[in-house]
Write a structure and sequence with these properties.
By secondary structure, the protein is α/β, with parallel strands linked by helices. It has 2 domains: 79 residues, no CATH class; 186 residues, Rossmann fold. The chain has 13 helices and 9 strands. It has a 9-stranded mixed β-sheet with strand order 1-2-6-5-4-3-7-8-9, sandwiched between helices.
Length: 299
């Protein structure tokens, strides 16, 4: 290991150390960076200086310094081939995420890192998808891949999985945004799919290694799915679904929202129809999306 590699590893240790502090969310982490410049300066700041930005218990935790023993597993993971830690200071950090209100200070990544800055579109929908819904997701993913778009989704059962598979089958690129640490595959039924994505696409997560599936993690995951993308295609969604959250986040982030309509009798279409009533664009063919995003030049 040369000096530059050693320094880079030391810097990553500081980024990971801060990201693992309980209660230090993305927005507050970014506030610390604005005030102090970088993680090294944050750890060098006094308790009184830190208190001007964060709560006392977080300032106390930072003042204790980095517990390198607790980071040993993360550093071992980073030493493996095609495993990366991407920070706000890195050139690989996705420019699209810099546009959202709370970009994650760190991203764990496994696979083809260059996909982070490829033009992308999100495809999301119901976990309990119909056969037709999964076929639609797969077909649209294949078609959009042919226009040079990377397909972004959340690795969930149903529509997400179909979207990832469609991109892979078309020899296209895909990013799976996980709601767990990248040493855990959730759902476990998608273990093989996750391996395929790691080989041909990219797996990313803002969550530390060992982080298990928790309800509060999914909205955080969803803001990255929408944030990475030029637009979001909702294939099937019930009235109360994570896809609704992703669509709302897309709108808040200034992204386009596209929706495939369905039967008025189907529970998995009611959320889609509500989104259309709220102003999302109804699409029933690929060209609706290509023309709206002005993507013909990418093919």
């Amino acid at each position: 290991m040369n000096i530059n590699q050693s320094e880079d590893l030391a810097e990553k240790t500081l980024w990971i150390g801060l990201s693992k502090i309980d209660g230090l969310d993305a927005q507050t982490f970014c506030e610390l960076l604005k005030v102090f410049g970088n993680p090294r300066n944050i750890y060098a700041a006094s308790f009184q200086q830190l208190k001007t930005v964060v709560a006392d218990h977080i300032a106390t935790e930072i003042s204790r310094g980095v517990n390198e023993e607790s980071l040993a597993e993360s550093m071992r993971w980073l030493s493996l081939e095609n495993n990366f830690l991407v920070t706000l200071a890195d050139s690989h950090y996705p420019k699209a995420l810099l546009e959202i209100n709370d970009p994650p200070p760190v991203l764990y990544a496994k696979g083809k890192l260059g996909l982070l800055n490829q033009p992308s579109i999100a495809i999301v929908g119901s976990r309990n998808a119909t056969t037709q819904g999964k076929e639609n997701a797969e077909a649209f993913a294949k078609g959009l891949s042919s226009y040079g778009l990377c397909i972004v989704s959340g690795l969930a059962l149903g529509i997400d999985g179909a979207a990832h598979r469609g991109a892979l089958q078309a020899n296209g690129s895909t990013i799976a945004v996980a709601a767990t640490g990248l040493d855990i595959v959730y759902p476990s039924k998608h273990l093989d799919l996750a391996h395929q994505i790691a080989k041909h696409g990219l797996l990313i997560s803002e969550f530390s290694l060992g982080e298990t599936s928790k309800p509060e993690n999914f909205p955080r995951r969803n803001r990255l799915i929408s944030g990475l993308s030029l637009g979001c295609l909702v294939v099937e969604a019930s009235l109360q679904s994570g896809s609704q959250i992703t669509a709302r986040l897309s709108t808040e982030q200034g992204r386009e929202v596209f929706v495939i309509p369905g039967s008025i009798h189907s529970p998995t279409s009611k959320g889609c129809h509500q989104l259309i009533k709220q102003g999302a664009k109804l699409v029933d063919n690929l060209q609706d999306i290509i023309e709206d995003l002005n993507l013909a030049h990418l093919s």
